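Quick one: structure tokens for this chain, please?
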Amino acid sequence: MVEAVLIDLFSLPAYLQDNIQGLLHNTLETIEKCSSIRPPCVYVMCCQRQGSERKGEEEFSFPDLRGFQSLKRRLEVVCAQTTAAALYTIKQRLDERDLSIIKVILPALRKDLMKVYIEHLFTAVYQFEFEDLQVVSGCENLQISEPQHEGQTLPSQDMALIRSEIQMYLESLPSLKGELTILRSSLIPDDIFLHGFTTRTGGISYIPTLSSCNLFSSSKRRDPQVVVKENLRRLANAAGFNPEAFHRVKIDHANAVCVMGKTEPDNYDGIVTNQKGVTLAAPGADCIPVLFADPVRRACGAAHSGWKGTLLGVSMATVNAMVSEYGCNVKDILVVLGPSVGPCCYKLPHESAKEFHRIDPKCVRLFDSATPYIDIRRATRILLERGGILPENIQDDSITNQNQNITFCTSCHPDKFYSHFRDGTNFGTQIGFISIKD
């Protein structure tokens, strides 16, 4: 069932926009007649003309629409100077109400354009259907016709203009939840490496569980790739790396490692390089983003270590790749564990807890319960030390000086970090990143 209707009047000429009440009347009447007990939300998208001092729905009044009793509280006009701005504002309204099934009523000539905007600004969470809107010249009415055949693919120049318009609009948005903050380790020498762990502040993602510097997009979440890309651009500017030379692991919750410059595996949770200016990154939203640095051989790596990856030894697999590929001495490699869910909060089923208990009983608390508490950080340290990493070359939450602690519990700090464990399926993601300075 359609949850929202978007009426696209953005490209209508000024004389028709001045008579918008008449133009809307027939369309709204059709929506009301076809609606079930719960009518859909209706959003009317219009172009805000240059020089207009009034914005948004204040630019229009609706005395002729008072008869639509079932729609009047669910009707909103959104005016903006660009399609990207108007559509992104409507997306925020949809997300506020958790709406995902949308009918778009628009002039036939706008359909292919609108599909490109939607492809960039929305994810697979949303479902769209399209219906043609035909404007009769010299008339104040709209007629809804049956959907027509698909149009031709837009020229590449038009596609580029749309992407540019979206990018410029997103770049103009203010940062949310304060300034962008990066946590850095004192263990990694900053004269050789650029590195850090992000927090959730300083981006433009507005959905509560994703707000604000979400750095991962998927088909199951509401943050589109263009928003994540803008968050990454802001991070790159703040941190000083090139976002075009940025490589993030392709999570498989296993122990495969990608070596930069060699054939890239389909999925991998570790990545290593000795190339200057290439930024490696591992995400985390409870799982541990782990960074590796060898100041002697000037090589680095990043790994994503969840409970499965921890048990499969993804951290030591990353270390071993640095040793075999770049001739690193395991005793020179520095390892930093970033923000992740702590043993204070994280639970696993008893069968999975047994595997951590085998590594060290101290990795499990309340072992006899159905869902014991698990310390994946301690397990990671133990496996690294067994693999030859020096204890003093590992930084985690066990350090003596807690003022230098960057291995915070993500679940315990909702103001600073995202947490899948705490926030559910529509969660945001922070990252750990590292590169060798030029």
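The domain at 182-436 is CATH 3.60.140.10 (CNF1/YfiH-like putative cysteine hydrolases).
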